[in-house]
Amino acid sequence: MSLELSDDGEVWLVRDEETGVATEGETRQQALEMLDDAVAAYNGEAGREPTDEELREMGVDPDENTSGELPDILK
User: Fold this and answer.
1) Where are the annotated segments for Disordered (predicted)?
2) pLDDT averages per 10-residue partition of the chain, 75 residues
């Protein structure tokens, strides 16, 4: 992995050497978290349906979602 501050010092640039996936973040920590998400997506490991508890935390009642589709906010 490579991690460096951009030339203008505005963002952190991070790249996973194994996959070639790269991303950036306003902070070092954010850049690393973004890379974790990007590599997971690249490997097909990201994305899952939210749990009923997660839906409730976002103000969505899972029992009222009878269409079988995710609410627009989660798409």
Assistant:
1) 45-75
2) 96 96 96 93 79 85 72 65
C-alpha count within 13 angstroms, C-beta hemisphere, residue 64: 6
Tokens standing for residue 38? 């990007």
Do 47 and 30 touch, CB atoms closer than 8 A?
Answer: no
Predicted TM-score (pTM) of this structure: 0.60
Choose the CATH number for 1-60 among 3.30.160, 1.10.10, 1.10.890, 1.10.1740: 3.30.160
Q: How far apart are CA 13 and CA 25, in angstroms?
A: 7
